[in-house]
């Protein structure tokens, strides 16, 4: 034990002092100083491989199947059904007809997400993935940054 105390007393702390070396009196004031170039943020540690950060949604790849909603344990995903639109369809013989198409997509509430990755695993269209973004704290759970759609 004495040896361990000796080693620890000369070792540098492994904690990353993020976002500042000393806790600022006011976080808002500190962020203001950062914006004005008077202070700098201690960079976060590099994210490990396969880090589970803010979810990314490829709306164009999604077919609106709704499977991700069913597996999400946090109920962080809802389906969005857009009003039907008329589209022109051309058949094999070149005949053009009009059809009504209802578009279904999803909306993800980041504040509710627990980053489990279940929705990504179930999506057969590879429309969902995770980014390395983790600075997600906000006072408004419905802020633009907290909604992915
Ligand atoms: S994201 Fe994937 S699983 Fe979810 S509705 Fe779209 S296609 Fe289906
Ligand atoms: S990662 Fe998990 S909690 Fe987050 S939206 Fe997907 S299924 Fe829901």
TrEMBL record:
GO molecular function, one term: 4 iron, 4 sulfur cluster binding
Stored SUPFAM superfamilies: 4Fe-4S ferredoxins
Coiled coil: none
Keyword check for Glycosyltransferase: no
PROSITE patterns reported in the protein's UniProt record: 4FE4S_FER_1, 4FE4S_FER_2
Keyword vocabulary terms for this entry: 4Fe-4S, Iron, Iron-sulfur, Metal-binding
Record domain 4Fe-4S ferredoxin-type: where: 53-82, 104-133
Protein name (record): NAD(P)H-quinone oxidoreductase subunit I
Lineage, uppermost ranks: Archaea, Methanobacteriati, Methanobacteriota, Stenosarchaea group, Methanomicrobia
The gene coding this protein: ndhI_3
């Amino acid at each position: 034990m004495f040896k361990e105390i000796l080693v620890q007393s000369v070792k540098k702390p492994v904690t990353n002092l993020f976002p500042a070396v000393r806790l600022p009196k006011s976080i808002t004031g500190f962020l203001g100083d950062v914006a004005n170039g008077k202070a700098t943020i201690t960079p976060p540690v590099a994210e490990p491989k396969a880090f589970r950060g803010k979810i990314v949604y490829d709306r164009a790849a999604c077919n609106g199947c709704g499977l991700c909603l069913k597996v999400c344990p946090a109920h962080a995903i809802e389906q969005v059904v857009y009003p039907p639109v008329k589209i022109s369809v051309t058949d094999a013989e070149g005949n053009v007809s009009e059809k009504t198409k209802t578009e279904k997509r999803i909306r993800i509430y980041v504040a509710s997400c627990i980053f489990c990755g279940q929705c990504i695993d179930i999506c057969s269209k590879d429309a969902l993935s995770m980014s390395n973004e983790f600075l997600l704290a906000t006072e408004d759970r419905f802020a633009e940054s907290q909604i992915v759609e």
